[in-house]
């Protein structure tokens, strides 16, 4: 009797998303996304500057400062956050470079939990499942609720281990 030593489908597609993320030139975070229908890969994308425009490694990050009210040890505190606005998110690029007909009933595997903006876009894209690995706690509660309302399966792979060659230090 032979034992099937192949990776399960979740691991296989998440591995591909992580490999795609290595194309990103963002110094803060590499994110990859793949579109899958059944067991067929239909598209890939990663985060980065628009095509033909210098990216952050060439022109530096385009940082926007924002203030956010957060709970720190039971007290509300105003915290200054920085985010790069030069980069198009992987999920946004995936939607830009795939066809609606291919997205209908499909799954998206993404290395990082989608932010609120990307989640909104995915919710209207025709996909029926979003699978991610690294959490984005800032938006988890509201994104999870929206996905529940839309009937989109939204799940994390908490015990997943990305391919060694794809791992980078993530900036918060």
Describe this entry's structure for a reader.
Belongs to the cytidine and deoxycytidylate deaminase family. Residues 8-155 form the CMP/dCMP-type deaminase domain. The active site is at 91 (proton donor). The chain has 172 residues and is an alpha/beta fold. The chain contains six helices and seven strands. It has a domain at 9-47 and 87-164: Cytidine Deaminase, domain 2 (3-Layer(aba) Sandwich), CATH 3.40.140. The protein is 29% helix and 28% strand. The strands form two sheets. Strands 2-1-5-6-7 form a five-stranded mixed sheet, sandwiched between helices. β3 and β4 form a beta hairpin. α5 runs parallel beside α6. The longest helix has 14 residues, at 137-150.
């Amino acid at each position: 009797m032979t034992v099937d030593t192949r990776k399960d489908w979740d691991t296989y597609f998440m591995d591909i998303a992580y490999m795609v993320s290595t194309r990103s030139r963002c110094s803060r975070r590499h994110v990859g996304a793949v579109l899958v229908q059944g067991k067929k890969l239909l598209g890939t994308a990663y985060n980065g500057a628009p095509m033909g425009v210098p990216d952050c490694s060439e022109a530096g990050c385009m940082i926007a400062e924002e203030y956010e009210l957060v709970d720190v040890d039971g007290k509300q505190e105003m915290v200054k956050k920085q985010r790069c606005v030069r980069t198009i998110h992987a999920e946004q690029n995936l939607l830009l470079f795939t066809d609606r007909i291919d997205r209908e009933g499909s799954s998206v595997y993404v290395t990082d939990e989608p932010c609120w903006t990307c989640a909104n876009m995915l919710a209207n894209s025709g996909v029926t499942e979003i699978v991610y690995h690294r959490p984005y706690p800032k938006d988890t509660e509201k994104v999870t609720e929206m996905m529940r309302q839309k009937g989109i399966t939204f799940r994390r792979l908490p015990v997943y281990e990305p391919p060694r060659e794809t791992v980078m230090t993530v900036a918060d």
